[in-house]
Amino acid sequence: MTVSLVDLYLKFRGLSGRSSGPYRLQSVTLCGWAAVYKFKEMFERMSPPLRRVQNLFISDLRPHRTLDELPDLSQLRQDELLRILIHYSFSTEDKENLLHKFRPIFGLGNRLTQVYSDLDIAAVQALDRILQLTASHLRTLTMPKFAHILANPLPALEELTIINSSSFLSLPSPITLSTKVLFPSLRHLRLVRCHKITRHFVQASVAPALTPLYLSRNISLSAPIIDSPPTDHVAQGAPASSTEMDFVPCVEHVIIRLAPHQLKPTMPQIRLYGERRLLRSCRLTLLLPQPGYRQPSDDHVWADAKCDWLQRIMGREGCWKIDPSEVMDEIDVF
């Protein structure tokens, strides 16, 4: 259910989110950060029995709007107009008409930077609050690369997809996860365009049930998949071996989608990299796109992700299945 349908339901019933009736949300789709803010406000007004969301899909794509759908622009302050420009996408003509409201342009750049910063903070707080309220029941989650938010324990989460798209918000850097068990039920993990945060999930105490790991979109094996921990997390004078992560021993299958130009790596090359402990005693599948493959736009990546999310919550296999024609090699790593 989208945030607009939730809003309509609450208005129709006159509940304002305070009902203890039988209705409750199970699957929610939020497109754009404006929807995230609005949903957070509605969600907080609901009673706990109505907040047992099991499936959550959050995209950072900006919904398209026309000037006819906006309030009277003459009544809006400059910051409100800037937020509209950031939150939504417009045709070239409509965008030019909006920018015309900012004449003279001098000094707009600094103000725009401040508005971006304010929205960054608001997005972090809103998403963090939603995950706090859904933590005990959430089973599937697809979200943008807000990895630092995932420092919150999600005990019921079984499937997680994180997508790094060209977001209009400047996302903060991820932090190192706690050493306590954060995802005890997580079985499937997909990282799209953000394989460098793999290290946070393959520590043995973080997701002990993780078995398949899917890394997708322009991954090059010329550099390690698993980054070494930041130097500020390593004690001064500690031996080099102490910088190695305690990788999950139960990962059974690692699927890596290579960049279209990537040559097939050899086993000696793979063994040189820090991820060799992760790959120990598992099956490694290398995927190489067919000739003519083009890097998909953010719209297509999110469309694929939503299709997969919808199919999986219906108990199906999902649409991110392995295309046999793309399988470059399958290797048993020992």
Give an account of the 3D structure.
The chain has helices at 3-13, 33-45, 78-87, 92-100, 108-134, 267-272, 298-313, and strands spanning 27-31, 55-59, 140-144, 159-163, 188-192, 212-219, 253-258, 282-287, 327-333. By secondary structure, the chain is an alpha/beta fold. The chain has seven helices and nine strands. It is globular, with a radius of gyration of 22 Å. Mean pLDDT is 68; it is low at 8-22, 168-176 and 228-243. The protein has a domain at 146-232 and 242-334. It has a nine-stranded mixed β-sheet, with helices on both faces.
Structural descriptors:
334 residues, alpha/beta, 9-stranded mixed β-sheet, 7 helices, 28% helix
User: What percentage of the residues does DSSP assign to strands (E)?
Assistant: 15-25%
Radius of gyration: 22 Å
Q: How many helices does DSSP assign?
A: 7
Question: Averaged pLDDT, please?
Answer: 68
> How far is the first residue's CA from the last residue's CA?
45 Å
Low-confidence stretches: 8-22, 168-176, 228-243
Overall spatial form? globular
Largest sheet: 9 strands, mixed
- Strand order, largest beta sheet: 1-2-3-4-5-6-7-8-9
The number of distinct β-strands equals 9
Roughly what percent helix? 25-40%
Series of secondary-structure elements, N-terminal to C-terminal: HEHEHHHEEEEEHEHE
